[in-house]
Amino acid sequence: MTKTLHDQRRALPAWVIGLVLLVGMYVAIWPSVRGEPSMNEFLDQMPEAFRALFAMSGADMSTPVGYVKIELMSFMVPLLLLTYAIGGGAAAIAGEEDRRTLDLLLSAPISRRRIVLEKGAAMLIGTALLGTVTGLALILLGWLANMDLPQGGVAAVMGHAVLLALVFGALALALGAITGHPAVSRSVPVAAAILAYIVNGLAPVVTWLEPWQRTSPFYQYAGHDPLQHGFSAGSAVIALVTITVLIVTAIVGFDRRDVRG
């Protein structure tokens, strides 16, 4: 685990700086948007499907919560956390195998189960760090710009965003452990995330998608509007169970597979 985190000693700080700068950019724009009813009028003129996809329905762009929800939490922050987690999950086993370093790792007195668990723990720590930094940046930089954001709501939405990213990161880890192919362990979780996002976003306006909405991890992330209503234990449990099942699948699949030399 520590070796995996050490290997990210340059990349992880770059992610942290990038996320802080991203939050800073949107916070700097806030004063020009604050209290502008014309922004809501502009959003109301957009197609209903577009507003549903980007969580614009019912959000008041002229308030701090509505602004952050639309500009950051509906798409941008989840996208970045997903990118990091899926990349980390794919690199955990399949990446090592592709670089021809996995056989050396397996020659050490370390069980395959431990490798999967500690690689997964490194992914969790990195994703949680990015989520924490983003939340702190929102609170601190928002305070400087007079954005009255609920601290509990920010903590809740970032917690759910981290769990969302870990679901697809664990899927990437499981596919990498089972197949050993980095391309598969990256592309399938990305495709699954896009599909889940579309299902959750369009379900309110597409009747036949409505029954499937609750199966989407994006619904567990944002369906109860955590920025406004706080943390949902039920949604968190569903995400944690999904992650656990995928990690167990990774362990079983890796134990049963012959590693490429």
Tags for this model:
mainly alpha; 75% helix; globular
The share of residues in extended strands comes to under 5%
- Give the count of structural domains: 1
State the distance separating the first and last CA atoms.
23 Å
- State the helical fraction: over 70%
Could you list the spans in which at least 5 consecutive residues all have pLDDT below 50?
A: none
The average pLDDT value, as a whole number, equals 91
Q: How would you classify the helix and strand content by structural class?
A: mainly alpha
The Cα radius of gyration reads: 20 Å
Q: Brief overview, please?
A:
With 261 residues, the protein is mostly helical.
Write the layout of secondary structure elements.
Blueprint: H1 2-7, H2 11-33, H3 37-44, H4 48-53, H5 64-73, H6 76-98, H7 102-106, H8 112-144, H9 151-179, H10 182-202, H11 217-222, H12 226-229, H13 233-255
Helix pairs in contact: 2-5, 2-8, 6-8, 6-9, 6-10, 8-9, 8-13, 9-10, 9-13
Give an account of the 3D structure.
By secondary structure, this protein is mostly helical. It has one domain. The protein contains 13 helices and no strands.
